[in-house]
């Protein structure tokens, strides 16, 4: 049985709350003013307090420090009929665990108090790390991430350029930083830039520097990012957004290891490892003519693909715990007890996460703010992000998205290869390609049994026999 103290000068509200919470099995005391509340806390420490903001002429929130000095770190739920911004901010700053606006739904009060008391009774032994987690750590132990770790370990000691690909929010920059941190250039600078965030007219001067007068080969008037990263690593994020003229100059820098500042005809040597990152399909961009194929080949000296969160669901829980511990440490707190409820973890694991790890981190931080230092529950999470480009995260959805991307790449390449013919007939070519692959794979799955293959394909045996003959698959 829990002991709850209600501090409210309205008799009807105190009575109704006492009846409600007594029916829930709690022992309830009522105080109509601050003095009575302090005396009640001294007589018996409450397990929770329901505190009205206005107690006649008194400020209820102003009495909270005195109550806590007597009752200890007791959870307080603030009640008010004046739900303005100032009151909400003061309640949060005073350490209230939640905020109820009058008139309130009694069922909501009952649920809220049950949660507050359950959080208070949670075991002290924490599963969160006892020390703040290292910033920038790559978290995960799933097979896809083990492959990433292996690739990073292999390429870090070398000087090869690395192309890190993956969807938005998968941690491409973290991978780049890990390559730098575990390589021989770790003592040098790590410089990162997002080419998509730079205006097209300044990309070249930002990367290569700029001179205003005659240049003799010394440092530029304004050093570029290549010079700033000398002896270290330069991350070119969103490399797929580089303008065509910048692509040509990047290729020359990679091949000659010399940088020519804007406004100069004289270059100078640079010692920089280049890592590029993108969420675009550069092969398709090359086929479409928007990205240089020679630069693509030069950048992908060692390609690494960061998996989507949907491909590593077993990492959701450790990631959530890491982000929560990091948030607590960043805001001056310390882990205390289990702060991720099983219901919250279940809700996290059921979400599709189109924004991947970045979206998960933002959701955990949002929930931590909503929970006010208490246990995170499903209701603390933000609404799921709608992803117009995704239909789901089931295996068939993920594979369908890959097929769609492959068709786009094939279409771009086919337009270049067949577009000048009198009859390009791209539709027939695409259908034949898909049909041949599907029929061949289905036959292999069925062990060559044409009856079973026809049934799985939804065709009769005569139609399948015709398709095999037309596709030169009839052996």
A few lines on this structure:
The chain is of the alpha/beta class. The protein contains 19 helices and 14 strands.
Characterization of this structure:
- By secondary structure, this protein is an alpha/beta fold.
- The chain folds into four domains: 3-120, Rossmann fold (3-Layer(aba) Sandwich), CATH 3.40.50; 143-305, Rossmann fold, CATH 3.40.50; 314-380, Helicase, Ruva Protein, domain 3 (Orthogonal Bundle), CATH 1.10.8; 395-470, Orthogonal Bundle (Arc Repressor Mutant, subunit A), CATH 1.10.10.60.
- The protein is 46% helix and 12% strand.
- It contains 19 helices and 14 strands.
- The strands form four sheets. The protein has a five-stranded parallel β-sheet with strand order 2-1-3-6-7, with helices on both faces.
- Strand 4 and strand 5 form a beta hairpin.
- Helix 11 packs parallel to helix 16, helix 13 crosses helix 15 and helix 17 packs across helix 18 (450-457).
- The radius of gyration is 31 Å and the shape is extended.
- Residues 124-131 have low confidence and may be disordered.
């Amino acid at each position: 049985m829990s002991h709850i103290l209600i501090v409210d000068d309205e008799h009807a509200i105190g009575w109704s709350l006492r009846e409600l919470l007594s029916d829930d099995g709690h022992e309830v005391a009522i105080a109509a003013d601050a003095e009575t509340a302090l005396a009640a806390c001294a007589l018996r420490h409450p397990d929770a307090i329901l505190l009205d903001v206005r107690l006649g002429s008194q400020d209820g929130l102003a009495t909270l420090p005195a109550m806590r000095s007597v009752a200890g770190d007791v959870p307080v739920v603030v009640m008010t009929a004046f739900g303005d911004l100032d009151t909400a901010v003061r309640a949060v700053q005073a350490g209230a665990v939640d905020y109820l606006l009058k008139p309130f739904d009694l069922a909501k009060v009952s649920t809220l108090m049950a949660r507050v008391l359950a959080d208070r009774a949670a075991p002290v032994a924490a599963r969160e790390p006892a020390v703040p987690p290292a910033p920038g750590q790559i978290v995960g132990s799933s097979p896809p991430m083990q492959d990433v770790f292996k690739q990073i370990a292999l390429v870090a000691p070398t000087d090869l350029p690395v192309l890190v690909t993956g969807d938005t929010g998968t941690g491409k920059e973290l991978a780049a930083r890990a390559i730098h941190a575990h390589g021989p250039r770790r003592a040098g600078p790590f410089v990162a830039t997002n080419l998509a965030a730079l205006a097209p007219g300044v990309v070249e001067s930002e990367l290569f520097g700029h001179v205003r007068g005659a240049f003799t080969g010394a440092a530029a008037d304004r050093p570029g990012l290549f010079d700033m990263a000398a002896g270290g690593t330069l991350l070119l994020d969103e490399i797929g957004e580089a303008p065509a003229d910048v692509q040509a100059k990047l290729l020359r820098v990679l091949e000659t290891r010399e940088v020519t500042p804007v406004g100069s005809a004289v270059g100078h040597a640079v010692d920089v490892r280049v890592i590029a990152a993108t969420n675009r399909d550069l092969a398709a961009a090359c086929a479409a003519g928007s990205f240089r194929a020679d630069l693509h080949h030069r950048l992908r000296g060692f390609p690494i693909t960061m998996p989507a969160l949907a491909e590593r669901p077993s990492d959701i829980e450790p990631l959530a715990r890491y982000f929560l511990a990091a948030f607590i440490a960043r805001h001056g707190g310390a882990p205390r007890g289990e702060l991720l409820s099983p219901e919250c973890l279940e809700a996290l694991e059921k979400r599709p996460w189109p924004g991947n790890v970045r979206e998960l981190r933002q959701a955990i931080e949002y929930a931590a703010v909503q929970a006010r230092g208490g246990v995170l529950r499903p209701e603390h999470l933000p609404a799921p992000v709608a992803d117009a480009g995704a239909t789901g995260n089931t295996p068939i959805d993920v594979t369908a998205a890959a097929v769609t991307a492959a068709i786009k790449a094939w279409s771009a390449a086919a337009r270049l290869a067949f577009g000048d013919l009198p009859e390009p007939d791209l539709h027939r070519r695409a259908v034949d390609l898909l049909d041949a692959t599907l029929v061949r794979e289905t036959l292999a799955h069925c062990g060559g049994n044409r009856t079973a293959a026809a049934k799985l394909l939804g065709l009769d045996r005569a139609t399948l026999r015709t398709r095999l003959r037309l596709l030169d698959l009839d052996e």
